[in-house]
Each structure stands twice: as structure tokens, then as C-alpha cells.
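Onboarding guide, step 5: your first structure request.
Type a short instruction followed by the sequence, for example:

Predict the 3D structure of this protein.
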Amino acid sequence: MANGLQQHHILSVLVENKFGVLSRVAGLFSRRGYNIFSLAVSPTEDERLSRMTVVVDAESTPLEQVTKQLNKVIPVIKITELSPDEAVERELMLATVKAGAEFRSQVTELAAIFEAKIVDVGYDAMTLLVAGTPDKLDAISDLLAPFGIVESQRTGRIALPKLARQPTKLRAVKDRGA
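The system replies with C-alpha cells like these:
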């Protein structure tokens, strides 16, 4: 565990966009006793394909076995393990928080600090939308807890590889003696 956080594998699985793929993947993990921290599925830029982002416990899930099983069970195009250090991970959370008149400004300030949006306001509560890293969502949840979280929902992680950051090489242009 680095920094007190549980280590995990992030699998980016490109699959054919077909009926039943999600249930087969969930069934595969369930039958093997592998714990899924997070599972997000959506179509890609190519409507024939979907990308599944599966986050699993690194200690209890043998990655090689998982990838072999995934290749057997579903129409997989490509499986990529994304190292947490080399991936951009994000998650979305909606949280309804008790926020009567006496605490509304404090909740609003917390929302601003975390770049959250207030998406609904009632007499005694507010609903916030927060997007960010899992750590960011955990942090705002911890700070909102004393106000009273009425309910919350998180999407699960989505991830893509970080982009290369190699500088573009400039080439000299000869002066032709203008």
C-alpha cells in the first residue's frame, strides 16, 4: 500500500459493443471471487466498440489469470493495464448534503474549493456534483460528512493512458540572405 491507499489494477478493456458483455464480465469476476472496486462501461468514438474500465484489488486478483479469462469469455479487442502512475483517472459523484440556512454558506464554500457544482437546492439540503480523482471525491465526502450526507452516488472510475510529454524538436531554418 502506497501512501496508505489500497493498490489496484486498472484494466482498460476494448470490447465489441454487443448485448450481454457487461453481465458476462461481472459473472466472470463473481465466479472467480475477484473483487471489483469499480466498473464503468461506455461506447467509444467507434459505435461498434465499448470501453470497459475495470478497477480490481492488486493483491487478491492475479492479473494474468483475469486477462486470460476475459479473452475467453467475451469478444475482446484489446486489454490494457493502466498503471495508476501512468493513467488519468476520474470519477463523478452526486451528493445531497443537509444544508439549512445556518450551514449553506459553509457547504457552498466547500463546493467552491473542490470545484464542485451545486446542481439542486432545497430548503434544508443541497445536491453537489463533483468530478475528479478518487482521492478528491473521498476528501470532499469526509469534509461534507459532519453536515450530514443524505445520499450519494459515485460513477466508478474511468481512465485513459497519460499522453506522452516529449517536446517537439525545432529545426533551424537557414537564412537565405533576404
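Each response can be followed by summary notes, for example: Residues 1-5 have pLDDT under 50 and may be disordered.
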